[in-house]
Amino acid sequence: MSTLPKVAWIGLGIMGSPMSENLVKAGYDVTGYTLEQDKLDRLAAAGGTAAGSIAEAVRDADVVITMVPASPQVEAIAYGPDGILENARQGSLLIDMSSITPQTSIDLAKAARQKGVRVLDAPVSGGEAGAVEAVLSIMVGGEQADFDEARPVFEALGRTIVLCGPHGSGQTVKAANQLIVAVNIQACAEAVVFLEKSGVDLKAALDVLNGGLAGSTVLTRKKDNFLSRDFRPGFRIDLHHKDMGIVTDAARTVGAALPVGAVVAQLVASLRAQGDGGLDHSALLRAVERLSGAQV
């Protein structure tokens, strides 16, 4: 019998499916629940167990991990008679790896404490590739003892794992991450259009730029998207739009000015309004192309 904790995984999307499968590969007993049957079948094929409800998934779990799109979905699966808090056993650890508002994480931790459930907010960065390769960056908010207990689980999912402070801190750092990523993608997209219109060999240019100070993980991960105009979603514009709303609202609350971030947030919103919300966030290139006179 395995001595590893039993894990319930709620949310098997682009990120959640490969992450849960990495826990199975690491030897964890993973029971999953999501709304799409094909995702449940995928987990079962990987060696996990499909549950018919949240209650069934979490009932015997030592650790419950959630990975859903936004705050409303976290609240929907956490609260109510059929939710996690009413059905998880006392003493279990709830790790929310969704990207949501810091206040939602703080409120969840408070409500869970009344049910005897401990909570960590642990959003991630690295996109689908990072999830598949188990090299995610994981930014965590919560108590040190809970973080120490969860570290082996995190180590099966990511490479950079940091406790950033009390509840909500992981989400605050994730918001900053999404600000940096969006601005970086926008800068790369503008450079691509500039280079192409100048008649430069784009692949050669991006290779040399990525070897210098202009290089970044964003450029490394998204270079091929720019070159091939392949915008199949690794991280959708819809979700980055949500995240830019989180960071701009949180910055307003603490009195931090985000002049460049505010512009990029509007560019993300405009791309979504033009019907590109389901594309990868590297599709910010399409917005720059439109502004530059291209028909895309």
UniProtKB/TrEMBL annotation:
One of its GO terms (biological process) is glyoxylate metabolic process. One of its GO terms (molecular function) is NADP binding. Pfam families: NAD_binding_11, NAD_binding_2. The keyword Oxidoreductase applies. Residues 168-287 form the 3-hydroxyisobutyrate dehydrogenase-like NAD-binding domain. The active site is at residue 174. InterPro entries: 6-PGluconate_DH-like_C_sf, 6PGD_dom2, 6PGDH_NADP-bd, HIBADH-like_NADP-bd, HIBADH-related, NAD(P)-bd_dom_sf, Tartro_sem_red. Residues 6-165 form the 6-phosphogluconate dehydrogenase NADP-binding domain. Keywords: NAD, Oxidoreductase. Belongs to the HIBADH-related family. NCBIfam families: tartro_sem_red. This is 2-hydroxy-3-oxopropionate reductase. The lineage of its organism: Bacteria, Bacillati, Actinomycetota, Actinomycetes, Kitasatosporales.
